[in-house]
Amino acid sequence: MSAPGSRLVSGVRGAIRAVLGTLILVGVVINFANVVGRYVFLKPIIWAEEVLVFIMIWGVMLGATLVTWENQHLRMDAVYHLTPPRVRRWLNLLSTLAFLLAGVFLLVQSARVVALVAGTGQRSVVAEIPMVIPYGALPVSFGVMVIVLVWRFRTFVRGEL
User: Fold this and answer.
1) CA distance 81 to 78
2) How does DSSP classify residue 145?
3) What does the buried/exposed string (b/e) look like for 108-119 if buried means 16 or more CB atoms within 10 Å of the residue's CB?
4) Average pLDDT, the chain
5) CA 125 from centre of chain
6) Percent of the chain residues topping a pLDDT of 90
7) Angle at Cα 28 formed by Cα 22 and Cα 30, nearest 5°?
């Protein structure tokens, strides 16, 4: 990849990491405030747990994009390392293609769900957050994963990886 492309990739990766860090910090602050409110003042923050679940959803899905980006998904390493390098290349290509097809399917399906939820105007029970926000984590994350996998597939085909 060219230098400007590398900077873009690094910037996007850094932005995802920054968002993840921010989500974790916000989650800790909300959780701490809820504990203090509940046990010190006997006034829990009623929307805290619901918001923490939504933060967790976004955190997991964005984290999955980084795992995909860095090719750190679980795999059968024992079998993988016993194969010759040429076979490993084909295993990588095959797994990338399978993951890409699954990612496209999940992107399309999650986008349909988000469109359906957006059409209903559904909101969360306590915090009254539009449910498009937590559901939106799915197509956003699968979209990033598909882009990463298309790039990886392209580099495999070109023989760069």
Assistant:
1) 5
2) H
3) eebbeebeebee
4) 92
5) 24
6) 69
7) 100
CB of 68 within 8 A of CB of 149?
yes
75-84 pLDDT per residue, tens: 767 777 888 9
Q: How many CB atoms lie within 10 A of CB 9?
A: 14
In 3D space, the residue among 78, 80, 103 whose CA is nearest the CA of residue 92 turns out to be: 80
Rg of the chain over all Cα atoms, to the nearest angstrom: 20
Alpha-carbon distance 75 to 77, whole Å? 6
| Whether the predicted pLDDT of 1 surpasses 70 | no
Looking at residue 112, what is its pLDDT?
Answer: 98
The span from the CA of 70 to the CA of 48, in Å, is 32
By the 8 A CB rule, do 11 and 26 touch? no
Q: Which of helix, strand or coil describes residue 76?
A: coil
Q: What is the pLDDT, as a whole number, of residue 109?
A: 98
- Residues pairing with 130 in the sheet: 123
Distance CA 139, CA 103 (A): 10
Residue 59 banded pLDDT, cuts 50, 70, 90:
very high
Task: State the DSSP string of 78-122.
Answer: HHHHHS-HHHHHHHHHHHHHHHHHHHHHHHHHHHHHHHHHHHHT-
